[in-house]
Amino acid sequence: MTEFTTREREILFYLLTKTEPIQIQEIAEALETSERTIQRERERLAQTVAPFDLTLSYIRGRGLQLSGDERHKRELREALLLSHRQLPSADDRQVELAYRLLQEQGMIKLQALAHAMYIAPSTITQDLERIDEWFRHYALELRRKKGLGAEVLGEEINKRRLIVSLIFTQWDVLTFYRFLQGNIHQLPQLLQSQQTKWVEAINQAYAVLAPLTKQQDLSDRLIMRATLSLAVQTIRMDEFPMVYELKAYPIEVLHHVDTIEQRLPYPLSIAERQWISEELRSFQQGQQETGEELVIRLRVKRLIEQVSLLYGEAFVEDRALEQGLVSHIMSYTKQNIVNPSYVIKQIEREYPRLFDAVKQAAESVFNDQAFADYDLAFWVMHFGAVLSKPLPKTPYRVLVVCSAGLGSSKLLMNRLRQEFTELDQVESSSLFGISRLQLTNYDFVLSTVPLPDISQPHLLVNPILPKEEVDRIRKLLVSLPKSFQSPVRKEASGWLDLTQLEELVKAARQLTESFSIETISSETDGLEEILLEISNGLVNKHVTSSAVQLSAQLLRRHEMSGLGIPGTRLALFHGRDDSIQRGGFFIYELAQPIELLGMDQVIQPVERILVLAAPEKASDQLLHLLSSISGAIIENDEQTHQFEYGDAKQLDRILNRTFRKVIERELDVEEKVNDFS
């Protein structure tokens, strides 16, 4: 069997996901290493891939390229996955760095850390920036002082929790079980520097906890966590004392603590009893501890890498995919699944190779946890969403109307550019000057003075733009789906285009007739299942030809930015896809609220899902109408309330008013152009 170093695996894996030459600088940045390292590996890599009938060539000015038949590339992928020689990866190195920092009291020099870990000081500096978030998640501060080093500040209880989570990233339940059976070689590399201490502490902790595990039906992971928590206490209690905080605990937890203390060979302080109480409380609650997110995140990264290798797609570059999978796995429950066998067949039929790749990678990465096929089916949907490439976004264009003078206008425009970098074109006008402008050239209008009835979405704002005004603009901005904007706005010719008007009326009638409010009958709290159920319903309505493709597209939109409308119980899902056969607007009332990411990046409860759908090659008229619906949702508080709670008749009236304005403006624009011609 061919064996590879970790560095070889990383570089080859990255090159296998590319079809064009890649600059060495880009490879170095992606793999968190130096360009010099990549250059040094070039010759050896060329020799490594030669037996697979592949060539690694350097193209001056363009970079490295791995060339050869797809069959041979597939053989290399499989060999990389089967290679059992896995030296520490970048993730493993960062876990070790965090662990070493937690073993120190006070500052430790970066040079000493680099020497102990056999890496360059510059690599230590980069890794410190990447793991800083881990410490913050546990209410710890990673303090760095130039010339002195780094140290971890915070409560000992939080340090211990992070240590347990770090061990979980390196150790699965199966190898832990084998360790308890006497195979000390299963101890992870992370703990090898204190092997004797850890072997003693873990075996003693399990012996103490064994009677409790027989009394309750506990999962393997809970048993493993409790054992590690007690072992961490044994190793750290003398050198790193705990601080007691007054709290109340269930009587069952306190009873377990008494039982454990009686079986320990050393007495416990009140603070140390509290540590055990905190950890054993999960026995009663049966909940995942918060540190599990770190474990899941690192494993998801490995899952994405392996699926990329097996499938041959560069999934690793997609941050939204990683976040979506982490959120899904953290919150997912197997209860209330909607017809799982049907779900599996449906997704497997549309993504057969991808389903196999995800299943194979999951078995390798999550080998201590069993995931059923219907779990994996929804993972496939997340990967499938990446394959459904979103359309290029059209930059927003905004008009600023101000009558208070040039200074006020400039102030507002500068504030807009500071707060909204996505604004591509910001122009200003006086109140009297807007009659000379083609307002359809702008996506929305902001004004410091009241405006007459104009066609485009608009807001009255304070030129200083305080936080509440920024929030209002953000709410307007994100409610205008870029996916429905026409790529080019056509100038009015002065001639009434009856064909265009007929298309506009026809599209308005189609949207009105197809509109409906339905209730999602399933009580699941999984977004993936809800979107698939919605999409299946739209297949029955002949709106789309593929429920899986549409649901993946809608899921993708949410993963990229969050779609909950701030301050409401609504989420606005929108998408254009080649599986969509005709446009439509639909509302779905959920049987129970679901927690979703809002457009302001804050989690919010959602009880109604609004869906705007359009074919990839939709007419300008249809896109204009769909965009007008999204604007109508936040046009005023009363109308927003109707979208939140109104019935079909009430919303029919709003749609009718909205479409009528669009059609009247179309006629009015033509008349005004004709008057001035």
TrEMBL record:
Coiled coil, from the record: none
Transmembrane stretches, start-end: none
CDD domains: PTS_IIB_bgl_like
This protein's record includes keyword Cell cycle: no
SUPFAM superfamilies recorded: Phoshotransferase/anion transport protein, PTS system IIB component-like, PTS-regulatory domain, PRD
Keyword set includes S-adenosyl-L-methionine: no
Classification via Pfam families: HTH_11 (PF08279), PTS_EIIA_2 (PF00359)
Protein name, UniProt field: PTS system EIIA component
Taxonomic lineage from the root: Bacteria, Bacillati, Bacillota, Bacilli, Bacillales
